[in-house]
Amino acid sequence: MNIQVSGFGSAKGESVDMFTLTNANSMEVKILSFGGIIKEINLPDASGKPTQCVQTFDSLNDYIADESYRGAIVGRYANRIGNGCFTLDGQEYRLDKNNGEHCLHGGNAGFHKRIWEATSHFDDNAACLELTLRSEEGEGGFPGNVVVKARYTLDNNNALRLTIHATTDKATPLSFTQHAYFTLSNADSVESTVLKINANKVTDADATLLPTGEFIDVKNTPFDFTEPTEIGNRVHNTPGHKLFDIVGGYDHNYVLNNDGSGQAQAQVFAADTGLKMQLFTTLPGLQFYTGNLRNDKQMGALCLEPQYFPDSPNKPHFPSCIATPEKPAKMEICYVFSVS
Length: 340
Known about the structure:
This protein is mainly beta. It has helices at 60-65, 231-236, 242-247, and strands at 2-11, 14-22, 28-32, 38-44, 50-52, 73-74, 80-81, 85-88, 91-94, 103-104, 117-123, 126-135, 146-154, 159-168, 172-173, 177-178, 194-197, 199-205, 211-217, 229-230, 251-256, 266-270, 275-281, 285-289, 303-307, 322-323, 329-339. The strands form seven sheets. Strands 11-12-13-14-27-23-22-17-20 form a nine-stranded antiparallel β-sheet. Strand 2 and strand 3 (28-32) form a beta hairpin. The longest helix is centred in the first third of the chain and has 6 residues, at 60-65. The radius of gyration is 19 Å and the shape is globular.
């Protein structure tokens, strides 16, 4: 195992570092203290050729200007909160509206544009990066002073794990995710990439992609990835669906089958490189996204964002996202890479 630290510029007068974690299999992960961004994931493909598995930018200025959350840790609340408001313990909170009438990915004070305190070390034969961020009450309109500790680890099983623990001094909704744009194939599109998602339903949504509170069975729809399926095959050879047509691609929340089986919640495979990725998470939802935000080419990459359901603070029947002083927020995402 190896960890290297190098400078990656500065933002608002603060230095930004890049941490390069390398394991015994020549897998290399580069992470920035800016936004907790996964800048690169590199590993040999089936022919031994080094392959870049996520989209990346060359400079810090590109990440500062980016409006698509590329590679970042997203918070305080991943996805949308409807009409930029919610009520908790009898008090209404007004949030930033940065997605039409909705609050998206934490609003204007999102964690993806913050510089995190960073330290690195080795632990249990894994390379570790510890990131810490403090979010004051009122940021983005959210209640509570929150301290977030995020931990990336890379081990010799080609597992990249992100664990997040967040404490608060007041009840508050918390939902974090990782917004990497995966490209396991060398193709310009992810249509030939094979995907499986362990979910039988997605949350229904209106024209603004805000959940209605209802659920849709994925069977016989473009959302059915219960078996390994080429993304393009599902898009082009499945009867149309009004929820799919809103996006013209994917930007939808899957209701994961947390059945205790231990199987991956999602699997991705690219035949041209032989690269496979399995995703495991403790979170109840998975946003599958193929591009429709600013500057995102549709089908140019795929995002698999574990999270609480969108608009959970306003949907009492959704899994609870509320953290309290007595009940800190805890979550885990693990990506396991292999070659077939």
